[in-house]
Amino acid sequence: MPDEATTILINLGTAWLAGSLIGLERSYHGRPAGFRTHALVCVASALLMLVSTHQAEWVGGLLPDSAIRTDPTRMAQGIMTGIGFLGAGVIFKEGLTVHGLTTAASIWVTSALGILFGIGFLYPAVIVTVVTLVTLSLFRWVESHLPSEFYADHVISYPIESVDDESKVRAMIATHGCAIKSMSYRLAERGTIYRYHMVLQTHDKDNLVKLAAHLRASKTILEFRLAIT
Predict the structure, then answer these.
(1) Is residue 67's pLDDT more than 60?
(2) Burial level of 193, CB count in 10 A (0-12/13-18/19+)?
(3) Which of 16, 177, 204, 223 has the fewest CB atoms within 10 Å around its CB?
(4) Which run of H or E residues covers position 158?
(5) Threshold 0.85, pTM exceeds
């Protein structure tokens, strides 16, 4: 019994440590689910798997061994299904951008690690913990140095009596190194304001800054909005 208690302690302790390390990375970068959330998710998953694999101890010898049926895979399926609701809670959409996907994935993999630690698969669990930490930290640096495209939600409003035609607007956008991926039109304020609504694409975020400076200096534009996503 002491050996079994030590094994349970090691499984829960390593699960807590792995979840804490992943959570610290998330907390450091200011993500909504951080140190405490990941630690609790990993420990809870490990605990539930321990409960599943130690069903014989529930009844305290009141039932014969032949009457006890253990199926830890069903518990694992339930854990991974339930953790999806927690992961969905950290995902939100702001403009054209979806935030929280990486944090949701880290919660999901943390739960999977808890399952591995709970059943005593320490070697693969430790390997995946290291891989997860490398993915979250090192790959962030790699992403920041890769060529990428930037998008912006752009709205220009003109007084109805001095609207620039579409060709002029498109030329102005192209001059600043941006491409228009989509465009819509709106007549607002009882027909007194005309708006172009666009999604812009560029390979250099500074192009959007220069475009904003140009729009700010314009004498014909009533107002504009340039939301970088």
Answers:
(1) no
(2) middle
(3) 223
(4) strand 150-159
(5) no
